[in-house]
Amino acid sequence: MSKTINDLVALERLSTSSSEVVVLRSLNKPEKMGNAADIAYGGCVLSMCVNAAFYGLPSATTSTPPFYLYSVLGTYVGPTLASDLVTFRVDVLRSTRTFQTRRVEARQKGRDGVERITFFAVCDFVAPEPTALKYSLQPAKTYTEPESLLPVQEAFRRRAEAGEFPMKVYEMWYVGFALARRMFEMRYCPEGASTANVLGMVKGVRHGGWGDHYTAQTCAFWVRSKTPTATTGVPRHNLQDSRGETSAALAFLLDAALAFMPATIGSTFLDDYGAISSLDASLRFHEPDDRAAVHPDSPYAGLPAEKRVKKALDLQRWLLIEHRTEVAGDGRTFSTARLFIRDYDVPVVEEGAREGSTEAGVGTGSSTADGGIPTTAGKSTSTSVGGEGVDSRYTHPYTGVQNVLPLNNTDHPHLYTTDNNKFRCLATMTQQSVMRPKPKQKAKAAKANGKPSARI
């Protein structure tokens, strides 16, 4: 049983370093979540595939920039069992100065002893490029801040003790979704459907979005890693120092509960349907997880590696994940999960950055010693955002281009500038899933027993 997300996605290389095809094997078995059968949670094999894709990438040097994962297009071919390790084959489909493309196959022996593919994905990497535009979609609703919420297990337990729903429901949820809770601290937003009905396990609950169109309703939760921030120099199996494992962790989170999100907003659960299962997963990373190691022309490029590798994404910061469903029909649903982070920040590359965060930069109206807009030296001014007629020397964090930019300027949308948005979207996953009703005879029996029928 893996204790951390680092352990869960950890891999060992079986092929030689000179081999063009990389063969890897998981160090730990994938685990179940939300499923009583001996079938692993789909996010386990997805996250392992994402980590596997990073093996064999060209090493970043002073002349070769690092490659960043921006797209994962995956297909679930069959169930991955929770009773055995998984083998991965990584083939090179494209290798240029700008793009790297890998095809990753997950293989596992079935109950009949025959090895077969259970999942495969095409993973695309890109070298850093100058940015012409920068903007971000915002969450669909205003959600309660995580600092004002209880950990999800505490919140659900208190509600069960107060008689809001049976303690048995809480116990089923506690056991069934222990995997994510073991590795991440989660706080469910009361504005989402999944909070009111415990992911649909409390049947028929009329949550806050009840009555709205299915496509207008959301499920949302805050999450952060329980893994301590890494010490400098840990090369692998560490959430903060490995780009592969960081991306894998995000894949794990974005896949969680997305397949049955349409059931959740209808206050129904898996047992109300004949089948709910993921068919595919399309994952897009909108920003690299290490924005300090960027284009060679960037002001960060000349720094020593130990100072350049500063994570723009710290998984011990609170992240917001929002689910929405868009289309249902012909036995399938299509839903989207988006991952947001608060504030518009730029990385700080020099020593002396504030404790507890690897980011500093443009805030949303606050004035701090390391907030504001970075200067040409890579430091930041403490001038408050939105001041009238104040100019500041500004260095674009991607291209290194210097501009004199008024702090309240709205005439330069092509620059990375402070705006009034509170969030930026770091990653998006879209997913098609099978969602079939129960056979008619079972539906009639369920109705006779007073259980709600499955309707979407």
Task: Determine the mean pLDDT.
Answer: 76
The helix-strand sequence is HEEHEEEEHHHEHEHHEEHEEEEEEEH
- The best one-word shape is globular
Number of separate strands: 17
Oligomer: single chain
- Describe the biggest sheet? 13 strands, antiparallel
Distance between the termini: 36 Å
Q: What is the strand content?
A: 25-35%
Global structural class: alpha+beta
Helicity level:
10-25%
Uncertain stretches of 5 or more adjacent residues: 229-241, 290-312, 344-419, 451-456
**Number of helical regions:** 10
Structure description:
With 456 residues, this protein is of the alpha+beta class. The chain is 17% helix and 27% strand. It has 10 helices and 17 strands. The protein has helices at residues 5-9, 42-53, 152-161, 167-176, 178-183, 193-196, 243-255, 261-265, 305-308, 440-448; strands spanning 11-13, 22-26, 68-76, 87-95, 99-109, 115-126, 184-188, 219-225, 275-278, 280-285, 319-329, 332-342, 346-347, 359-360, 391-395, 402-406, 423-436. The strands form 3 sheets. Strands 1, 2, 3, 4, 5, 6, 7, 8, 9, 10, 11, 12 and 17 form a 13-stranded antiparallel beta sheet that branches. The chain has a two-stranded antiparallel ribbon with strand order 13-14. Helix 2 runs antiparallel to helix 7 (243-255) and helix 3 packs antiparallel against helix 4 (167-176).
